[in-house]
Design brief:
Chain A: This is ABC superfamily ATP binding cassette transporter, ABC protein. Chain A: It comes from Secundilactobacillus odoratitofui DSM 19909 = JCM 15043. The complex is a heterodimer of chains A (about 260) and B (about 325). Helix content of chain A is about 35%, strand content about 30%. Chain A is of the alpha/beta class and about 260 residues long. In chain A, the strands form three sheets. In chain A, strands 6-7-8-3-9-10 form a six-stranded mixed sheet, sandwiched between helices. In chain A, strands 2-1-4-5 form a four-stranded antiparallel sheet, covered by helices on one side. In chain A, strands 11-12 form a two-stranded antiparallel ribbon. By secondary structure, chain B is an all-alpha fold. Chain B contains 14 helices and two strands. Chain B starts with a helix and ends in a 7-residue tail after the last helix. The chains are: A alpha/beta (about 260), B mainly alpha (about 325). The interface of A and B includes residues 73, 74, 79, 83 and 106 of A.
């Protein structure tokens, strides 16, 4: 297996005249959870959409297992990368099973409906612990359950890479931790490569093995949480001062006493 | 699922048979059921088979087509109050027919079809480009732009027919109705209906997925561009054929899918066939009301369905949160 499943070289992208990402290179390690962090408007979502092939770079290439991602058809790409956006919207009136079923879309062609599908769909629903809600309407689920249903949908895509844009936003703490623990479980048991945008740096440090910090469209730091989360970076990227300790159980850095720099000076 | 939801298809089929029979028997004069067995060459048989039956078939199919185009439009635009008449697609087809007629194009079935296709297609393009924003179609812009556009186009239609003194000639187009339906039109509708049904059946999963947000749909590997074009073609085709035969009938595409959705919430795939049936039942009933309420007078179909659709729209805005949610 390649060390890096996704590699982007000399990537630039933007909207019209405004360049969001300028000449950046980035690698996503296989079989790990990679966290994209950075302040608002730093280009995280743009980079995310470049890596999953949704947006075209103005220059530079994104390669998936050594192959340019723009050469893949929509279905081929979806077989490799499953994607969950920030505010997924389910069609009115559909049940969890149906929603998860749509994850199989990329694996279907013509009248071949795939006998494996039902099994995979059921496994995906089991994996996100929604077995009892399989026949429930998505609209009547709670926020956390709904997010898990969408994760099951991406899981049913049966792709080596899963990409999630802020999957924990708008969820309460219990649900946030459940989603993150679930992703960790998927990473460990099914060896999924996971790319995830997170705002909570402590969560990012605890659940990701690899972090990429973006500021103003360029990568300011990249590496393990210990390498990336330094007081220097916190000051430069987030204008924040914090005490950094090591969580002895998880062996990851955690921030204490976060304060904005302006307040201190 | 409760009893109503489980038996909705059955109820609608029975309803359609009952209403269809009444529609054939009813009108400016009511006939007895035995009229259906009269020989074709008798006067009664002629009335039944050359006037009432094609009229029935036309209203059944126009109802189905309008309901279908409404459901498709609501699915792809993520907007529960989208409807070809609200967006001015009907009005576009209507205007094209009136302009064509005034310019002296003979109103053969073939001519009416291409004229209304051009009109509906152009109107669709204009409304969609009005609604386009950087993030795709903006639901609010779609509805507001469409409403204004629709009113604008309808006014032009009226103005042209008033100025050229042809309001009587184009009465059917302007106020809608099936009083002059022929077997030729029935064949046209049948062809369009088959095309629409077969295409929708082949792509039902993909079309259902267009109801999701654009990013999720793309993430699942759906070629949104292709499916969008298919949906758009079906909407334009269904609307154009309906206008070419039944004139400007609005609100069916809005009301019927919403009513079905209220009775039995479901995705495009689950509800599409029930919605078609519902459209047929509604249109056949409305046609019966239009021709039988006041003997000898054809009530304007456009007004009838606007009455129904208007009440429904009010109820939705008052009771349904999804209208405001985008």
């Amino acid at each position: 297996m390649n060390k890096y499943i996704l590699t982007a070289t000399h990537l630039s992208a933007g909207y019209g005249q405004h360049e969001v990402i300028h000449n950046q290179s980035v690698n996503i390690p296989s079989g790990q959870i990679t966290g994209l962090i950075g302040p608002n408007g730093s280009g995280k979502t743009t980079l995310f959409n470049l890596l999953n092939g949704f947006e075209k770079a103005t220059s530079g290439t994104v390669e998936l297992n050594g192959e340019p991602i723009i050469k893949l058809t929509a279905k081929q790409r979806a077989q490799q990368i499953a994607c969950l956006c920030q505010h997924p919207l389910a069609p009115a009136g559909i049940t969890v099973t149906e929603l998860v079923n749509y994850g199989r879309y990329a694996h279907r062609h013509g009248f071949n409906r795939g006998h494996e599908d039902q099994k995979i769909v059921r496994q995906a629903i089991d994996a996100v612990h929604l077995t009892d809600f399989a026949a429930t309407q998505v609209a009547s689920l709670s926020g956390g359950q709904r997010q898990r249903a969408f994760i099951a949908m991406t899981l049913a895509q049966d792709s080596p890479v899963m990409m999630l844009d802020e999957p924990t936003t708008y969820l309460d703490l219990t649900n946030q931790l459940e989603i993150l623990a679930l992703l960790q479980e998927l990473n460990q048991k099914l060896h999924k490569t996971i790319v995830i945008i997170l705002h909570d740096l402590n969560q990012a440090a605890a659940y990701c093995q690899h972090l990429i910090c973006l500021v103003n469209g360029s990568i300011m730091a990249e590496g393990t949480p210990k390498q990336v989360l330094t007081s220097n970076l916190l000051a430069q990227a987030f204008q924040v001062h914090a005490q950094i300790t090591i969580d002895p159980q998880r062996d990851c850095p955690q921030l204490l006493n976060c304060r904005p720099l302006e307040a201190i000076s | 699922m409760n009893w109503w939801q489980r038996h909705l298809v059955g109820i609608l089929i029975v309803g359609l048979i009952v209403v269809a029979t009444l529609n054939v028997l009813g009108g400016s004069r009511w006939y007895e059921l035995s009229a259906l067995w009269q020989p074709m060459h008798s006067l009664l048989g002629k009335v039944i088979w050359t006037m009432r039956v094609p009229r029935l078939l036309a209203s059944v199919m126009v109802g189905a087509l309008l309901a279908m185009s409404g459901l498709l439009l609501q699915t792809v635009s993520h907007n529960p109050i989208a409807d070809p008449s609200i967006l001015g697609i009907n009005a576009g087809a209507n205007l094209a027919l009136i302009v064509g007629g005034v310019l002296g194009v003979g109103m053969s079935i073939f001519n009416t079809v291409w004229l209304s296709l051009v009109g509906a297609g152009l109107a669709f393009l204009v409304v969609m480009s009005l609604a386009m924003s950087r993030h795709g179609i903006a639901p609010l812009r779609l509805i507001l732009g469409g409403t204004v556009f629709s009113g604008f186009i309808s006014c032009i239609s009226y103005a042209i027919s008033v100025m050229t003194n042809t309001t009587e000639q184009y009465r059917n187009l302007l106020v809608g109705g099936f009083s002059s339906s022929t077997y030729g039109q029935v064949v046209l509708l049948a062809i369009v209906l088959v095309i629409v049904i077969v295409t929708a059946a082949c792509f039902q999963s993909g079309l259902t997925l267009l109801a999701m947000d654009a990013t999720s749909t793309r993430g699942l590997g759906v070629s949104t561009g292709i499916l969008w074009s298919i949906a758009a073609s079906l909407i334009v085709l269904a609307t154009a054929a309906s206008v070419a035969v039944g004139g400007n009938i609005g609100f069916v595409g809005l009301g019927i899918p919403q009513l079905i959705q209220a009775i039995r919430p479901g995705s495009f795939k689950q509800n599409v066939w029930v919605t078609l049936l519902g459209g047929s039942v509604f249109m056949t009933t409305a046609d019966l009301i239009a021709k039988a309420t006041v003997p000898g007078v054809e009530l304007p179909m456009a007004a009838l369905s606007a009455l129904f659709g208007g009440c429904l729209l009010f109820m939705m805005v008052v009771f349904d949160r999804r209208v405001i949610q985008v």
